[in-house]
Amino acid sequence: MMSRLRLLPSLLGAQAARLLATPRVQVSSCRRRSSEPPAASPGSRGGGVSSYMEEMYFAWLEDPQSVHKSWDSFFRRASEEASPGPTQSSSPSVVPESRALGSGRTKTSKLVEDHLAVQSLIRAYQIRGHHVAQLDPLGILDADLDSFVPSDLITTIDKLAFYDLRESDLDKEFQLPTTTFIGGSESTLSLREIIRRLESTYCQHVGLEFMFINDAEQCQWIRQKFETPGVMRFSSEEKRTLLARLVRSMRFEDFLARKWSSEKRFGLEGCEVMIPALKTIIDKSSEMGIENVILGMPHRGRLNVLANVIRKDLEQIFCQFDPKLEAADEGSGDVKYHLGMYHERINRVTNRNIALSLVANPSHLEAVDPVVQGKTKAEQFYRGDAQGRKVMSILVHGDAAFAGQGVVYETFHLSDLPSYTTNGTVHVVVNNQIGFTTDPRMARSSPYPTDVARVVNAPIFHVNADDPEAVIYVCSVAAEWRNTFNKDVVVDLVCYRRRGHNEMDEPMFTQPLMYKQIHRQVPVLKKYADKLIAEGTVTLQEFEEEIAKYDRICEEAYGRSKDKKILHIKHWLDSPWPGFFNVDGEPKSMTCPATGVPEDVLTHIGGVASSVPLEDFTIHTGLSRILRGRADMTRKRTADWALAEYMAFGSLLKEGIHVRLSGQDVERGTFSHRHHVLHDQEVDRRTCVPMNHLWPDQAPYTVCNSSLSEYGVLGFELGYAMASPNALVLWEAQFGDFHNTAQCIIDQFVSTGQAKWVRHNGIVLLLPHGMEGMGPEHSSARPERFLQMSNDDSDAYPVFSKDFEVSQLYDCNWIVANCSTPASYFHVLRRQILLPFRKPLIIFTPKSLLRHPDAKSSFDQMVSGTSFQRVIPEDGAAARAPGQVRRLIFCTGKVYYDLVKERSGRGLEEQVAITRLEQISPFPFDLIKQEAERYPGAELVWCQEEHKNMGYYDYISPRFMTILGRTRPIWYVGRDPAAAPATGNRNTHLVSLKKFLDTAFNLQAFEGKTF
Fold first, then answer.
1. What confidence tens digit (pLDDT) does each residue in 852-886 have?
2. Which of 264, 394, 440, 870 has CB atoms 3.0–4.6 Å from 924's, for a disulfide?
């Protein structure tokens, strides 16, 4: 029997699986019971699905109760429409002769097959209609890099033939399935009208990708939004608003082009519709309750967004173009198309307050993505907005960067993680169909630049950017999707770039055919204005008056910008901290109070850290020993590294400071030392965080294992720290060298953020570091890189004052520390919050010292009145007789314990003094000078375990020379220069260790040498 059912294409599979899923469809007991239809045979077009449907139909003929009632109703209705003759039985319980003979068909079975063929056709449009949508405004490229047109969607004749339908079927009425809304209030349509409506929905200027989403409700929601007849209609007022926004978008670019024709500005020409698109997303979101929108975007169109979306004063933008004006703010500043902005205003469409923040970012195009997400998460956290009903993010991307930058994928994979989700982001892709000069066919392997979004089931709406009404409708739906389902959504604005990569670039060198077409392309504003004038929505005079009005606004702002005497980068601050830098209107005192805490606070924290606050909670026996050890240390008034960290965090929580610790495996700690989250050994996923049970009114503590990402997660935590100064936000690398893959965030945001964007940030980076024979990959956190980027001057002799420490910290771009004791670690974390400003803090944390018997601190070093020691001087026998000391060794971190052990073994306690630098940058000039003068007859040695071309020596050496007036040398002791940071051979490691320790205590090693 040649059944048309066997020609159903494979695209029917997913919906068929839902319709046929057990228990909703139960074929009679002699037939298959399965939640999935049989698989199609190789080379077939869904034969497995269709044959299963045929089998279900014959099962219904035998017993109507064997199928779901919806199918029973359908088959009954089909039977009635077939109008059986007198020789046919109308009872479905009789097996037809054609079934028994295996040849021929009843009218009923033909009607069923035709209906199923039409359903398959509908589904084909829903799944693959975007492949034939008219998305390219230039009409020369395929947005999906594939000129192939699905054979079942080419022409009407081809469609009919593919589904074994005929032209005579075009005017037949067909029952519409529940998986389409093209009928509106009608349940049946002619096949001709069905095809017309499907093409209108799926094959015009909007291309929809959503059928891969595995949630039926969400698919239905999207279908309803786009398939329902008449949904994409706008009132005259809405059209006029859209036109006015297009006028502002295009005339702003024209104004800049006239005034500064030779300046780079990365204009929006060719995608001017992005401005009304973003405003529509914000309007719709505001209507649905959003009060704060945080945006991130690359440089193209940024000035236009600042002017017409954020609504920054135009004169502030224009004065950035004046080369004669000098910035009064400290720091280097940045080019105008990298700067950010924060602004609170009334949304004129909804008459509700809205706060808009555009995050500053560098030319590393997608680096801002996780930063925006982190800032959004923090704003939601501080507002108690767990569902994202008040705060949301919008990310604007370029097509080449969206497909090519790995951080996009990393950021998407944070989107649904409990401690990182922002409850949905609207992604807007400005699809220039070219990356700088690179053809998309050479820039990506995926059909669309947006395919990366499919990994998180985000719907993707492609839209022709030369159809403003289609763009506005798509953006409205995208905003509604985000605020309904709290999931990501992508709007792909398929447009073009009227000029080159920047205004000075000549694109005809590399894309001659494309740019010949672009030069002929009528601007979208003219096309849309002509359309509205033709339909009588506006008059030509009204249109010209709208243009003149905005031109006048720009000219007046330009005049005011000439009166600006000073550029203030502070006007471009994207994360203001009201009240933080001032107290009662006066600047904060530039001092840092003592960082110690009362002993009863330490004891209380130690008690909680060594207990399980929840009842009937079973912990691992190995963890029981750890908790007993903590209790024992608390009784003895000592703390190891983990307990000191616990006490630093806990004391800040008591003072109302939110603490957030993030990174791979931070809950337990890479080295199984932290255990901030306890897991019940008997109940799955039952956990306890004792740190949140310290005090009834404490601030919350968040500790969260991250995805296996450094770039994305560090960017996220940086954005989180950006939102508020009253939080200690820490990111810990699993091993210190893992920060390599987050170097972009470190270079572009952490190191330079304040200089470029006046952005204070107190993020803390915890980087496990130490040469312990474990190989080159997990030994060094590469301190030389951080020190090389430190901005203190090695040749400038400082002026010492009573507040020298704090003023040094205020002037630096970040703080670099390598603590040798738990007390130092405790104090430097607390100082991070008690300072009257915020600076990033880089801490090289230990590995072996976590359990080293000598690496413990007494409570006496952490109680009230104590504070962080930038330098820890010698306090043994050598300090009591400094005149007899022959060698003063300076060092930092773990190597101190190796040196002390070696000195003791050689009996040189009186002849060799050892001084530790706990803070390396900014360099403690004052304390180093004191130490050197304390031992006037001693040789000065810098000892490090890192190789000479790494570590700290290149940083400290010129600073020692400056502070000592080049009167005394500072000799290097350590490993020889090398390419890799450490050896992979344990024996080689020990030999090199012994060698440099021998040199450190060979008191004749440098005799006769000059410097």
1. 999 999 999 999 999 999 999 999 999 999 999 99
2. 870
